[in-house]
UniProtKB/TrEMBL annotation:
InterPro entries according to UniProt: AA-permease/SLC12A_dom, APC_superfamily
Any Pfam family the entry gives: AA_permease
The protein, known as: APC family permease
Keyword Ubl conjugation part of the UniProt annotation: no
Amino acid sequence: MTPPSLARRLGVRDAVVIGLAAMIGAGVFTVFAPAAAAAGGGLVIGLAIAGFVAFANASSTAQLAARYPESGGAYRYGRERLGAWPGFLAGWGFVIGKTASCAAMAMTFAAYLAPSEWQRPLAAAAVIALAAVNLRGITRTARAAAIIVGFVVLVLLLVIAAGSGALVQRGIPLDGLLDSGWTGVLQSAGLLFFAFAGYARIATLGEEVRDPARTIPKAIWIAFACALALYALVALVLLATLGAPALAGSTAPLVDLVETAGWPAAAPLVRLAAAVAALGALLALLAGIGRTALAMARDGELPHPLAAVHPRTRVPHVAEIVVAVAIVALVLTVDLREAIGFSSFGVLGYYLVANLAALTQPAGERRVPRALSAAGAIGCLVLVATLPPVSIIAGLVVVALGVCWRLITIARRRR
């Protein structure tokens, strides 16, 4: 008997909020400080570079998603257009790297709300609760994401309003744009790029979107444009209000902004929004990992039980449960908040495969110029090169583990 497939229940609005939940995660509350430390005022150039690379990647992803409206995202695109090995490496990097990211998001959520001795139990409880939401069906995931995104966006608009006075008074901060050199600017771009990466969650849900050839590209563009506008405004008000040196040394930049702007009463709300944003990113990541694991299991790249789909809720329940258990185990045993550089490596590798896959599409399937996909691939390689050496080494180790896993799997099939 043919197993049940995933159900197409998501419209444009649902897909947009899931993408925004992944993009407007806890990163927007923390990423600007290390970006400023790398580039100073040049982080605005870094943001522009990151935005362009993300735009190119989004273009390739949207084009591919319209042609292959299935679960798996770049794993599926790489497998169909480039072959089994590139597809596997994209999927492997995503599943392993983003599992670690989920643990980091859970710990970030708990760090904002609980004393240190309660953070791990609270983080584990958050993972279990959000996994339960996902298991109830993709429409429940979309509803929860909409609530989270709505609250976080309102708080970000409050932060922008608090910093708008300094921005109007001092103008767009253009001092010291290249004081740290192009190396610093590119490193800031590498850090800021990952704030945009959530649009891939929309593509991984391709099998659950109605009219995917129209809905997925439209949802990707709307989510990307909204996120870019918010990030640009937040970056400008941070630089205008705090200045690059103070921003670089801040552990809670948006909290410092509202306090410096004379809105201290908003600080607890900003901290709460950071915690809620981490939950939104975790919710979207759980859904994306589960669908990618489902696609890989269907092709025999991961254990076959992960391909199971619940007959009533139409979600990959086994994959979702296994991923949740793995994240809880990480949360309870390892502190990954500062040790997930290989996740960044994996994301760039994931998009590199997507861009290369888009380059192979014939003219009849193309929605964007081939040059834009080529620019996206080059951008991914450049940003990988700017990552700290430890992140690159960790990423290569993860790739090596994936290669060993696949070679062992292939050897077993031949027996």
